[in-house]
Amino acid sequence: MTEREIVSFVKQLGISYGKNKTAPKSTKLSLVSLDDGFKDVLNEKWPSWKNWGEKHVSTTEQSYLDKFEKNDLIYLSADSDNVIQELEEGKAYIIGGIVDKNRHKNLCQDKATRQGIKTAKLPIEDYLNLSTRKVLTVNQGMI
């Protein structure tokens, strides 16, 4: 991602955290694969991230493959053939931390397939009439 896209992603994380924290039914977010370089960006662009409560967010350097059982993972991808109508209790839904302005079609889908992870897309077309690709930002996927 470019510097501008990374800044956009950090802002989207902040929005996701804020919306989740105040939601009537919040969930625990897991920020995974959080290396020192990304922590530096977070510290610079959104320093209050360190104050996000453990009730709402867990952070780890581990990959989602190390943190969760593979059978419990579902990678959300606009390119999936599987449309998800309801979230399943006990499943971990992966929202890829990518801001690419649709430059990389199938990026998340291909990654999940290589890793043997189920994929699904949200039923956007059932509720919205969009003339463009049905790709959401990180915070839109969270909400």
Automatic annotation (TrEMBL):
CDD domains: SPOUT_Trm10-like (cd18089)
Keyword Transferase included in the entry's annotation: yes
Native source organism of the sequence: Rhizopus delemar (strain RA 99-880 / ATCC MYA-4621 / FGSC 9543 / NRRL 43880)
GO biological process: tRNA N1-guanine methylation
Catalysed reactions listed for this entry: guanosine(9) in tRNA + S-adenosyl-L-methionine = N(1)-methylguanosine(9) in tRNA + S-adenosyl-L-homocysteine + H(+)
Broadest EC class assigned to this enzyme: transferase
EC number(s) per entry: 2.1.1.221
Positions of the SAM-dependent MTase TRM10-type domain: 1-143
InterPro entries linked to this entry: MT_TRM10-typ, MT_TRM10-typ_sf, tRNA_m1G_MeTrfase_euk
Superkingdom to which the source organism belongs: Eukaryota
Name of the protein in question: tRNA (guanine(9)-N1)-methyltransferase
